[in-house]
Amino acid sequence: MVEKSPYLTYCIGKNCENCMKVEEKFLTAEFSLPQMDANCECGTIVCLKCKKSGHEPLNCQLYKEWDDNLASVLDTLNNNWKKNNTKSCPGCKTDIEKNQGCMHMTCAKCRFEFCWLCMGDWKKHGSGTGGYFKCNLYKPDDSEDFGAEYIKRLQFFTDRYMEHKRGLEMTDDKIKTHIKLLENKLTKHFQLNS
């Protein structure tokens, strides 16, 4: 009944069974619902013409093109973020985000401990293996020509610099957060005792 009426349309809201009625003066020359956003009592905004989420001021065709491409755009953005912010665990290949300053990582899934810089087993980073920062020492490759070796060396040190800088920034942010918490507690304490 509702589907055949040019005046009525169902709400697309989750678990909503409301029906919206449009006055005759709003119907198009083809006697169909206009491109117009309508607010349902449940809070959902519906485009009367295409029966999708409200999208004014975009017309239905542009909205459809955007919606069709959105999954691809989100995939690209997600992959870019993952590339720039995660590495795969050497143990189980799960993507891991570094969220603290230390280079010593422990995979939450398989509990493998590794170095964020060189991705090597953390057990091999002890004092018996040349120190915890041995992976910061550059080992030249004599088989490369001078230009390629220079670029490789520059990349090696730039990567380490950026990782250490990022680690320091994370640590600095956490310290500032803790200082604010302490300051708030001290302020409250002194106000109560005054």
First-to-last CA distance: 73 Å
* SS summary, helix count: 2
Note the overall shape: elongated
Helix content: 25-40%
Low-confidence stretches: none
The strand count comes to 8
Overview of the structural elements:
This protein has about 190 residues and is of the alpha+beta class. The protein folds into three domains: about 1-60, no CATH class; about 85-135, no CATH class; about 140-194. Helix content is about 40%, strand content about 10%. The chain contains two helices and eight strands, in the order E-E-E-E-H-E-E-E-E-H. The chain has helices at about 60-85, 145-194, and strands spanning about 10, 20, 35-40, 45, 85-90, 95, 105, 115. Strands 1-2 form a two-stranded antiparallel ribbon. The protein is elongated and about 85 Å long. The model has no long low-confidence stretch (mean pLDDT about 80).
